[in-house]
């Protein structure tokens, strides 16, 4: 079951406010002695927002880390609650005098360590050690600041401090409880007595962190700085909050979605001239014996052979690229697209591929000038290897589906398709990790167009997530596993698709290879298994259109081994 947590340090360890996707409306409040205990269960958290510094600089210039300097101006009289966090060596010291000496040597202008800040060092070290050891948790743990969260809830600095000279200030506590109530925190949580080992202000801070976690999960998170930096160990350095801008009448409904039409419009303008406008082939009513009025969207003619080029360019044109370049994990198509976009932008690219990647796709990646590294047996193994590389080098990771920049870039395909075929009733879209269908569904959300996903029977991560009402692990065994082989679609894709995808149709491997053969035989389109999956759902009957239904079918990948295609096509 998917869950989020807002966490604050307390006398007994850590106080956590936990909210489940399904379960009681009021968050569960618990105290754990170690931060790692939050990850000890069979199902770990999707997001943990914690009031504790994450990511430590080697040198400090000015009044502390960049995030602290960035948020102080927003807090008015609450500025004093933002401690100046010194350099890593000082935080690692267990003796106060030693910490001050190390801080003085690593700061400009020289600054000592406050006694209050020094008491935080053991907890900072605890999180730091955990995230340095567990790379996969780095993308789930977000540093927050409760006073900044309260300020964003109110829209202006707060009127009352939470404490006065170290003593609880009742007007300040009442002001914060009111803001949390308005933010959707259940009354019973606000009136609850904190667990043993935690104070009443610790509980309110954990609940404020939970509010930020919910915004981050919904795609409304805002980091200071934007984009977040990384320290020398690859840990993120940013304080996260959320935008307090009230949505206008035009975008009120869309503002609750992680990826919106305005974002896709901006991405389309950004990548114009970099990604191709691919054609639509109109086959007409009754084509191929179908009851539908049928057309094919030929994204297989995109640069680098797939739609992935759209998301790759949107990442490279949206985000700052460090000296170490960019890195990605890929079954082949995403890697080829990132390599192509990096080549065009003059950027170094390092691509991690699983052992199952076809030689044709690896060849395409190399042809575009990227370094290729085999990162394990399956896609998830390659992703883990990529994450380690990013942590070690500081390279920019371009995720194939679990990133808004990627999803938004893929959404430009939906926009383009809509302009070319404005009267469609339904679109069939192949699903691997779900970045493509998330982007397309984000564009068509709220329109009359139904978005239907197509997954191989042996690789059904999106259908499993929709059934489980949250991301779920699946086993992968399919002829299309190199491109449609994600074991888990992740939270972002689930959040988009749960309300925007009509349903998922499952297609057998035999139907996929039959679709490859038909696309070559009838249209001379050389298409890989994943790219032919949606067409396979139509010709096999896995998706049965209504009579006269205007149906668009996406043909989305051309990186096929031609020798294998010749064998399939006979």
Overall description:
This protein has 570 residues and is of the alpha/beta class. The protein has 21 helices and 21 strands. Helix 11 (308-318) packs across helix 12. The longest helix has 18 residues, at 200-217. The radius of gyration is 25 Å and the shape is elongated. It starts with a strand and ends with a helix. Mean pLDDT is 88; it is low at 244-256.
Output the structural class: alpha/beta
Determine the fraction of residues in helical runs and give it as a percent range: 25-40%
Order of strands, widest sheet:
12-13-21-18-19-20
What form results from the Cα inertia axes? elongated
- Overall average residue pLDDT: 88
Q: Span from first to last CA? A: 47 Å
Number of H/I helices: 21
Count of individual beta strands: 21
Taking the sheet with the most strands, its summary is: 6 strands, mixed
Radius of gyration from the alpha-carbon trace, in angstroms: 25 Å
Low-confidence stretches: 244-256
- Strand residues, percent: 15-25%
Please give a handful of descriptors for the protein shown.
21 strands, 5-stranded mixed β-sheet, alpha/beta, 21 helices, 570 residues
Map the helices and strands.
Layout: E1 3-10, E2 13-20, E3 28-32, E4 47-51, E5 60-61, H1 66-72, H2 88-91, H3 96-105, E6 107-108, H4 115-118, H5 121-133, E7 141-143, H6 146-154, E8 163-164, E9 167-168, H7 170-182, H8 187-191, H9 200-217, E10 221-230, E11 236-242, H10 261-271, E12 280-285, E13 293-298, H11 308-318, E14 326-329, H12 333-345, E15 349-353, H13 359-367, E16 371-374, H14 379-393, E17 396-397, H15 404-420, E18 426-430, H16 435-444, E19 450-456, H17 461-468, H18 490-500, E20 503-507, H19 509-523, H20 529-540, E21 550-555, H21 562-569
Helix pairs in contact: 6-9, 7-9, 10-15, 11-12, 11-15, 12-13, 15-16, 16-18, 19-20
């Amino acid at each position: 079951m998917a869950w989020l947590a807002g966490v604050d340090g307390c006398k007994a360890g850590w106080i956590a406010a936990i909210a489940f996707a399904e379960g009681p409306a009021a968050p569960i409040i618990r105290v754990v002695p170690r931060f790692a205990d939050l990850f000890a269960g069979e199902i770990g958290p999707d997001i943990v927002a914690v009031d504790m510094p994450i990511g430590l600089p080697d040198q400090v210039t000015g009044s502390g880390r960049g995030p602290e300097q960035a948020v102080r101006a927003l807090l008015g009289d609450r500025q004093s609650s933002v401690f100046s966090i010194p350099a890593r060596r000082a935080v690692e010291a267990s003796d106060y005098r030693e910490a001050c000496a190390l801080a003085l040597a690593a700061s400009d202008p020289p600054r000592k360590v406050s006694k209050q800040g020094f008491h935080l060092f053991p907890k900072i070290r605890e999180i730091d050690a955990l995230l340095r050891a567990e790379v996969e948790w780095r993308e789930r743990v977000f540093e927050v600041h409760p006073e900044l969260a309260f300020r964003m809830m109110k829209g202006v600095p707060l009127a009352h401090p939470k404490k006065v000279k170290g003593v609880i200030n009742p007007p300040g506590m009442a002001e914060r409880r009111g803001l949390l109530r308005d933010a959707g925190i259940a009354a019973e949580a606000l009136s609850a007595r904190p667990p043993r080992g935690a104070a009443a202000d610790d509980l309110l801070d954990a609940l404020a962190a939970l509010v930020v976690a919910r915004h981050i999960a919904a795609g409304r998170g805002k980091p200071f700085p934007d984009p977040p930096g990384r320290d020398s160990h690859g840990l993120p350095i940013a304080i996260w909050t959320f935008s307090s801008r009230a949505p206008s009448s035009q975008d009120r409904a869309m503002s609750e979605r992680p990826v919106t039409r305005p974002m896709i419009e901006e991405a389309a303008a950004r990548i114009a001239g970099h990604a191709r406008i691919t054609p639509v082939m109109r086959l007409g009513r009754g084509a191929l014996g179908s009851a539908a009025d049928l057309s094919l969207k030929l994204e297989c003619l995109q640069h680098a052979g797939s739609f992935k080029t759209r998301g790759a360019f949107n990442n490279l044109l949206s985000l700052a690229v460090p000296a170490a370049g960019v890195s990605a994990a890929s079954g082949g198509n995403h890697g080829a697209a990132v390599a192509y976009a990096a080549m065009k932008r003059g950027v170094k690219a390092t691509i991690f591929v699983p052992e199952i990647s076809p030689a044709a796709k690896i060849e395409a990646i190399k042809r575009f000038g990227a370094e290729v590294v085999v990162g394990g047996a399956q896609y998830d193994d390659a992703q883990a290897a990529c994450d380690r590389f990013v942590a070690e080098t500081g390279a920019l990771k371009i995720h194939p589906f679990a990133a808004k920049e990627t999803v938004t870039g893929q959404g430009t395909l939906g926009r383009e398709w809509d302009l070319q075929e404005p009267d469609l009733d339904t679109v069939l879209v192949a699903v691997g990790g779900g970045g493509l269908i998330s982007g397309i569904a984000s564009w068509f959300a709220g329109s009359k167009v139904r978005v239907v996903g197509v997954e191989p029977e042996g690789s059904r991560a999106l259908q499993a997530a929709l059934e489980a009402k949250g991301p779920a692990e699946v086993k992968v065994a399919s002829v299309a596993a190199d491109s449609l082989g994600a074991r888990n679609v992740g939270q972002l894709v689930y959040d988009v698709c749960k309300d925007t995808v009509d349903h998922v149709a499952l297609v057998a491997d035999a139907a996929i290879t039959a679709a490859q053969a038909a696309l070559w035989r009838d249209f001379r389109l050389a298409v890989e298994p994943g790219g032919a999956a949606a067409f396979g759902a139509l010709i096999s009957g896995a998706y049965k259109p209504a009579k006269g239904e205007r149906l668009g079918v996406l043909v989305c990948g051309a990186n096929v081994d031609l020798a294998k295609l010749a064998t399939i096509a006979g």
